[in-house]
Amino acid sequence: MTDRLITHLRHIDLAVPDHAKQLDFFTGTWGLTAEHSDTGLTFLAAEGSPEHYVVRLRQADDKRTDLIAFGAASDADVDTLAARLAGNGVRLVSEPAALQTPGGGYGFRFFDNEGRTIEVSSGVGVRTHRKIAEGESIPVRLSHVVVNSASPEETRAWYERHLGFALTDTLMHPRMGEMMWFMRINSWHHSLAFARGPHPSLHHASFELRGIDEYMRGTGRLLRAGVEKIWGPGRHLAGNNTFSYFLDPHGNTVEYTTELEQIDEDTWHPHLYDFSNPEVADQWGTANQMNEFVAQKSFNDPDRGLFTAPPV
Prior knowledge:
single chain, 312 residues, alpha/beta, 2,3-Dihydroxybiphenyl 1,2-Dioxygenase, domain 1, nine-stranded mixed β-sheet, 6 helices, 19% helix, 36% strand
């Protein structure tokens, strides 16, 4: 594992054919705030987060994940990481430069081993944010992103080698073997995870709520609005976080969660959890059963953006 030069997850950028419909869902139902909008391009903030945006929506002919963005501590670390990646044969999309997105900063983009566009930046301005009130069931921050991978062992090794991610826990199944790897870049149990899937795609994006009451209120609001629930509400063993998974209007899975575990990295030893044990999937026993039909909902469509950088 290389030394870490990235510090945290910043945002996920999505391209969708129906920008207006997706925007209405994220603002009117999910609880994000639209800012800095332009024609066919919207930056969505979480009211409790210092990030200028946690989701960017772009109108496009094809649904795709435009990029996943991470932060770095300094411009020097951005330069060091860019040089290191280029020296190791990683294909850069752009060289380090001033960012032209809300909050500014200094960053660059590159492709990971499966062709996802990744951005790393530093010096991004802090958004004026606030403490989410008791009972207010809107996202506080972007918690984590999980991607499907056709070669998850290789993808895990790539992120460990090049970006300094560390394995926190692994899920396995007696019939399918190892199936999900939770990866951390700081003390949060995971900021990124890799799921074994038929093709590279977004598995889900997860948003942290204030607490258990707000998480349940948010879950209920989505159910009352008729949004399709995939799985939940429940509480995972790995990460000890709550979960309610829903489908957005374009078939992407989005999650409400809270109380994701923070670990002591100096003493942590990864677990191998058997997903066929019901308490591994859901400690509470309140969620619908996870089976192959439920799992397929999060396979998502094959990502149309692999090794193709977004235009903005």
